[in-house]
């Protein structure tokens, strides 16, 4: 697989882009004309700089408004082309993209355009240049790859081919399978981009909202399957115009791009087993069977407070690590590990961010295959020295820098609890009916949400569901839920745009994003709430106004409402069923726990309740920092 990315796709100066692109593993770059004109170096110096990074210039683009002109305009278009060909010779590239004309005086006519390209082909041949013609979705006369291909077919020149760009085809809902009839030697170049499904002017959508394959809603894999079916084995290049990416971090963006390309081509190979894809073998997306543990880095008074809270939620301290200051708390299937070590990863998390969730253990069929796939997709493996008597549990760095461990039964890793822990005697607490982890809620900067979602959906068998807006009194937080099959694992990604939101405040103290809350499931939330109250748990208080509104919104009788209100339980319904949830009071840094009960397959997370929950949390947090007025 020959991987390329257009310089427009990421932020920075041309030099910064090149370094990031090379480091992320790409083989080549498309040079966008503006990037090159803005640079102080001569075309030859720029070409050398690119090659010094080990990159090839795969394409020079865009050349606009070429075809369909007459008279002087036509002559000038050919002069411009010769001028670009000269520049390309200096840069050291032999492939150019001509996008379909948007010129007000372009006449249209398949044969006229074909004649223009036949004539240009003869000039390009003298320079040894391949010209690719791309149908812009908003081209004046040509806006469909089938018409671009027909023009190329009639031009019938070896130096003229067609360029396929997934955005232009898929945004117009053109069946990508029509690509299968194009001969591969007539495909000059292939560009990939995804985009979220939004109803919008095509040009505006394309120039501002494209994203990496797999980050949006377009069937990019179907497009690429059709391209691969032609036998095309040339460059596959990302061309992503995106406002956020223009200001993002170049290396992270380039790495996301590489991850998205590899995952897409792996999907193509699995969907089209008869097509050879030149990509090392890797295991398929990994099904997460559940959350095996969550681990907090904590210490001192904060650890005491966390332990006290866990006790009031019905957790029992059941074990201690054989050699480390690490304790194990359990209820139902939920394991909470408290790490008070003063060396190692948990220590470094604690010293930078205070008590926080530093590690998540996921239960998978094969831990080794999980890290193998993650590595093939550019994830960083995580290692810590293993002391005698300890298991070497495979782990990777998650996007925000936290650690994710993988445990399986078949290689004995899930025996870690009996191997590495000694039972803690006589500390049993009455359990409160918490059974498992319903979801983990991670907070990150809004600009990084796509990156986090791509990480999860490419390594694991997980899908994005709808994006919801969470209204914080001080700003909007975007929430993207992702889940595995049967909801065995659910994660919500909450993208904060300002530090004044509850999520933003947490983010400011967490350096790069982390789990802000953990939701535990109960099969009977009222019984759980009563048991926890008896243990001394103090829920997040909800105002009476909330319950008055609930009465108006749902068919809940007074007795039921009174029960909910007595325990500060919030309520929601979707087309499937109902949802009940209550919250702990937030820690000083904004971390909290939630307890939920899903009834009859409710699929959401109680988003309509979020504004009231957040306002209540902010009321609790006020005395700590900001004065009330
Ligand atoms: O938005 C544009 O003008 C533009 C230019 C070149 C391309 O390859 C493309 O897909 C879009
Ligand atoms: Mg394009």
From TrEMBL:
GO biological process terms, semicolon-separated: 3,4-dihydroxybenzoate biosynthetic process
Cofactor(s) the protein needs: a divalent metal cation
Single annotated GO MF: metal ion binding
Positions with a binding annotation for a divalent metal cation: 134, 165, 191, 239
Keywords for this protein: Dioxygenase, Lyase, Metal-binding, Oxidoreductase, Plasmid, Pyruvate
Binding-site residues for Mg(2+), renumbered to this chain: 439, 517, 594
Listed pathway(s): Aromatic compound metabolism; 3,4-dihydroxybenzoate biosynthesis
VOC domain sequence ranges: 290-409, 436-585
InterPro entries documented for this protein: 4OHPhenylPyrv_dOase_N, DSD, Glyas_Bleomycin-R_OHBP_Dase, Glyas_Fos-R_dOase_dom, IolE/XylAMocC-like, VOC_core, Xyl_isomerase-like_sf, Xyl_isomerase-like_TIM-brl
Organism domain of life: Bacteria
Catalytic activity: 3-dehydroshikimate = 3,4-dihydroxybenzoate + H2O
This enzyme's EC code(s): 4.2.1.118
The protein's enzyme class: lyase
Database matches in CDD domains: HPPD_N_like
Function field: Catalyzes the conversion of 3-dehydroshikimate to protocatechuate (3,4-dihydroxybenzoate), a common intermediate of quinate and shikimate degradation pathways.
Family: Belongs to the bacterial two-domain DSD family.
Name under which the protein is recorded: 3-dehydroshikimate dehydratase
Classification of source organism: Bacteria, Pseudomonadati, Pseudomonadota, Alphaproteobacteria, Rhodobacterales
């Amino acid at each position: 697989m020959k991987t390329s990315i257009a310089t427009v796709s990421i932020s920075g100066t041309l030099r910064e882009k090149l370094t990031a692109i090379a480091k992320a593993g790409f083989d080549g770059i498309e040079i966008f004309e503006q990037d090159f004109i803005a640079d102080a170096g001569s075309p030859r110096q720029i070409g050398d700089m690119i090659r010094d990074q080990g990159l090839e210039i795969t394409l020079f683009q865009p050349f606009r408004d070429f075809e369909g002109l007459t008279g002087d305009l036509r002559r000038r278009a050919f002069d411009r082309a010769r001028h670009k060909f000269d520049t390309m010779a200096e840069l050291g590239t032999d492939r150019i993209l001509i996008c379909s004309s948007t010129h007000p005086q372009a006449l249209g006519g398949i044969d006229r355009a074909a004649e223009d390209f036949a004539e240009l082909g003869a000039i390009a041949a003298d320079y040894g240049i391949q010209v690719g013609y791309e149908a812009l979705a908003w081209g004046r006369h040509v806006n469909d790859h089938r018409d671009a291909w027909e023009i190329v077919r009639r031009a019938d020149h070896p130096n003229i081919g067609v360029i396929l760009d997934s955005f232009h085809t898929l945004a117009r809902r053109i069946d990508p399978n029509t690509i299968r009839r194009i001969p591969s030697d007539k495909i000059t170049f292939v560009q990939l981009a995804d985009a979220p499904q939004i109803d919008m002017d095509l040009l505006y959508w394309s120039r501002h909202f494209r994203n990496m394959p797999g980050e949006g809603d377009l069937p990019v894999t179907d497009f690429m399957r059709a391209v691969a079916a032609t036998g095309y084995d040339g460059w596959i290049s990302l061309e992503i115009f995106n406002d956020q990416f223009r200001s993002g971090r170049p290396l992270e963006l380039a790495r996301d791009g590489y991850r998205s390309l590899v995952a897409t081509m792996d999907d193509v190979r699995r969907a089209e087993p008869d097509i050879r894809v030149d990509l090392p073998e890797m295991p398929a997306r990994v099904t997460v069977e559940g959350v095996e543990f969550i681990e907090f880095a904590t210490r001192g008074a904060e650890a005491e407070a966390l332990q006290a809270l866990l006790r009031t939620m019905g957790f029992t301290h059941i074990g201690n690590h054989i050699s480390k200051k690490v304790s194990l708390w359990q209820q139902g299937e939920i394991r909470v590990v408290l790490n008070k070590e003063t060396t190692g990863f948990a220590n470094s998390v604690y010293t930078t961010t205070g008590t926080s969730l530093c590690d998540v253990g996921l239960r998978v069929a094969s831990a080794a295959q999980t890290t193998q796939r993650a590595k093939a997709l550019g994830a960083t493996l995580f290692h810590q020295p293993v002391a005698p008597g300890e298991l070497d549990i495979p782990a990777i760095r998650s996007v925000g820098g936290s650690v994710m461990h993988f445990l399986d039964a078949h290689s004995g890793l899930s025996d870690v609890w009996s191997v590495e822990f000694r039972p803690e005697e006589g500390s049993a607490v009455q359990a409160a009916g918490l059974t498992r982890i319903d979801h983990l809620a991670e907070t990150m900067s809004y600009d990084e949400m796509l990156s986090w979602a791509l990480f999860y959906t490419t390594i694991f068998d997980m899908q994005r569901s709808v994006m919801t807006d969470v209204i914080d009194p001080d700003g909007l937080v975007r929430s993207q839920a992702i889940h595995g099959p049967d909801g065995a694992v659910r994660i919500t990604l909450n993208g904060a745009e300002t530090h004044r939101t509850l999520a933003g405040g947490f983010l400011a103290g967490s350096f790069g994003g982390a789990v802000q809350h953990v939701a535990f499931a109960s099969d009977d939330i009222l019984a759980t709430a009563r048991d926890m109250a008896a243990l001394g748990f103090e829920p997040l208080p909800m105002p009476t106004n909330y319950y008055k509104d609930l009465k108006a919104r749902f068919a809940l009788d007074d007795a039921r409402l009174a029960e909910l209100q007595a325990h500060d339980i919030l309520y929601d319904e979707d087309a499937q069923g109902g949802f009940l949830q209550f919250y702990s009071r937030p820690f000083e840094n904004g971390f909290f726990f939630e307890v939920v009960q899903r009834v009859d397959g409710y699929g959401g997370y109680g988003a309509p309740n979020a504004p009231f929950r957040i306002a209540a949390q902010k009321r609790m947090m006020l005395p700590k920092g900001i004065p009330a007025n």
